[in-house]
Structures are given as structure tokens and as C-alpha cells.
Design goal:
By secondary structure, this protein is α/β, with parallel strands linked by helices. The protein has one domain (13-309): TIM Barrel, CATH 3.20.20. It has 12 helices and 10 strands. It has helices at 25-37, 60-72, 95-109, 128-140, 154-167, 185-198, 220-225, 227-233, 239-255, 259-268, 286-291, 299-309, and strands at residues 13-15, 42-44, 79-84, 86-87, 90-91, 114-119, 144-150, 174-176, 201-202, 277-278. It has an 8-stranded parallel sheet with strand order 9-8-7-6-3-2-1-10, covered by helices on one side. Strands 4-5 form a two-stranded antiparallel sheet.
Length: 311
């Protein structure tokens, strides 16, 4: 598939949200090493990971990734995607804030360029022209290779493109939406038409529904025992969601793979999706994620998942 994204990426993006949160530095290095050894080259993070964790202030994930890049001397082999607007010290998308946040991310990542820089959440209090101009300035300065948006409404993405074309600014090449087998409607009805019109690369997050699509949460007791991830998976826990889990289980059992592999392979096969994002808190969780990069559903399996998830 040819999209607007200007570099080749492995068809599974490794989520960096666990680094410095539920994965310490040593474990994070192990996961990153194994991902790279398998051919992986696309790491997703944010300047705000993991300010939400007690004792953290934001930037912990970038710091660990930067230390790993430096210790492995492999910066040129890795595509780094990071984001701006949610770090406690750099909230919003005013031009001065974007410039300062980018510099802070570059220091933590121990690099002089970011491959893919996302506007993490829209900031409607700042004129979109200002935001688009600030991202363009980073591209022109060579500090960012390409720009992208995450969690943006369709009309705001179209507005960004209109401004960029009018002003000669760099245009977004990718979007990062919440999209998976049990959360399809918002993306497919609203954002997917813009993606098709602009040939954007799609890098979905929550590809496994915070663990729900691994089969980990089949009862209320499972959710309650799941601590943070269980709380995040609650929105999927209903009869329709459990029907999707059953369908995944059937395919996974028949093919001798994990449910996570099947769920991510379905997502990888959707239009314009270049790499679903999935996180591995431990090394043991990584193989089933990596397997999705080369696992292909047959026509009937894909049709079954399309039908049950459409409910």
C-alpha cells in the first residue's frame, strides 16, 4: 500500500506508553531489543508518557527510548513517532509551546530529528493556522521529517489541509485514531473518508482494546482484577464486545495463534492502515504482537470478523 508517509515502517508499531510506567528501563530495553531483532523499526511515544502515573512528570518514555537509541547506536534504523500538546509543562498547540516541546523531546530522545511528529489532541483555543505554521517551521528547520495528527475530528483535519495548501505548509502524512474491532464507528464514518481523500497513513492506537481483544477480560471479575488496563477495557465489555472476543477465539484456536495476533492482523488489513500500535509490558507479551505482522486472515475469517464487529 502506498500512502503519504515518507518512510518504510514495519507493519506493527511498538507502543512506548509502558516505558517508565509499567515497564522499568531494563525491561523496556529488552522489549525494544527483541522488537528490533525481529525487524521492527517503528516506535510510538509521546512527550506526556507517562505523566499520568504517580511519581512521574512526563517524558519518561522518551527518555528511555533515547537512552536505548544511544546505547545501541541505531538511530538511523528506527522511525520515532512522538507527540505534543499533553505534557504538563507544554500543554496546547500554540506556536511557542510546540517549538519548546519539540526541543524538550529532542533532548530526551537524544537525537536531532523526530521522524513523525503528531499533534496529540486538538487545541481549539489556538488558531489552526498558528499550529500548522509551527509544525511547518519544524519541518523546514530539519527537526521533524513529517507531521501527523492524533484524535482530530474529520472537519479539523480537512481544515488543516486547506490551510497547508493555501500557505504552502507541510501537510500531515498520517493520522492516529482510536480504532479496533470493538471501536469502529467513530473512525470509519468520520475520519476514514478524509484518510481516503488525502491518502493518509493510519496508525491506530488501542488496537487490542486495552487488552480486551486478547481475551483477558471475559467476566466482571476479570475486569476488576485487571487494575488499570481492566478499567480502560470496561467500555468494550458488553454482549457485542464479547461476541467479537468469541469470534477471535474461534479463529485463533483453529489457526494455532494468539487472539492478539488475529485482532492486530484484522486491523493491519484495513484500508490505509500501515501499522497498528501495540504495547508489550513484558518480553513475554511481545511474540503474539510480532506474529501479527506476517499473519494473514483468509477471506472467510475476515468476513466473519467484519460481520461480528459491525454490530
Amino acid at each position: 500500500m502506498t500512502t503519504a508517509i515518507p518512510f518504510d515502517v514495519y507493519p506493527l508499531a511498538l507502543g512506548g506508553n509502558t516505558f517508565g510506567w509499567t515497564s522499568d528501563e531494563a525491561t523496556s530495553f529488552d522489549v525494544l531489543d527483541a522488537y528490533a531483532a525481529a525487524g521492527g523499526n517503528f516506535v510510538d511515544t509521546s512527550d506526556s508518557y507517562s505523566a499520568f502515573a504517580p511519581g512521574n512528570s512526563g517524558g519518561e518514555s522518551e527518555t528511555i527510548i533515547g537512552s536505548w537509541l544511544a546505547s545501541r547506536n541505531n538511530r538511523g534504523n528506527v522511525v520515532i513517532g512522538t507527540k505534543v500538546s499533553q505534557h504538563p509543562d507544554f500543554r496546547g498547540l500554540a506556536a511557542s509551546n510546540i517549538a519548546a516541546a519539540a526541543e524538550a523531546s529532542l533532548r530526551r530522545l537524544r537525537t536531532d530529528y523526530i521522524d513523525l511528529y503528531y499533534a496529540h489532541f486538538d487545541d481549539e483555543s489556538t488558531p489552526l493556522e498558528e499550529t500548522a505554521g509551527a509544525f511547518d517551521a519544524l519541518v523546514r528547520a530539519g527537526k521533524v521529517r513529517a507531521i501527523a495528527v492524533s484524535n482530530y475530528r474529520a472537519e479539523r483535519i480537512r481544515e488543516w489541509f486547506a490551510i497547508a495548501r493555501r500557505e504552502g505548509f507541510a501537510m500531515p502524512v498520517a493520522v492516529q485514531p482510536h480504532y479496533n474491532l470493538v471501536h469502529r464507528v467513530d473512525y470509519e464514518r468520520q475520519v476514514a473518508p478524509v484518510v481516503a481523500d488525502e491518502n493518509l497513513a493510519v496508525v491506530p492506537y488501542f488496537g487490542l482494546g486495552a487488552g480486551f481483544l486478547t481475551g483477558k477480560y471475559r467476566t466482571q471479575a476479570d475486569l476488576e482484577a485487571g487494575a488499570i488496563r481492566g478499567h480502560m477495557a470496561k467500555s468494550y465489555f458488553n454482549d457485542a464486545g464479547l461476541a467479537v472476543v468469541d469470534a477471535l477465539d474461534k479463529i485463533a484456536s483453529a489457526r494455532g495463534v494468539e487472539m492478539a495476533t488475529v485482532a492486530l492482523a484484522w486491523l493491519r488489513g484495513r484500508p490505509n492502515v500501515v501499522a497498528p500500535i501495540a504495547s508489550a509490558r513484558t518480553l513475554e507479551q511481545l511474540p503474539s504482537l510480532l506474529a501479527s505482522a506476517t499473519f494473514d486472515l483468509d477471506g472467510s475469517e475476515r468476513a466473519d470478523l467484519d460481520a461480528v464487529s459491525a454490530r
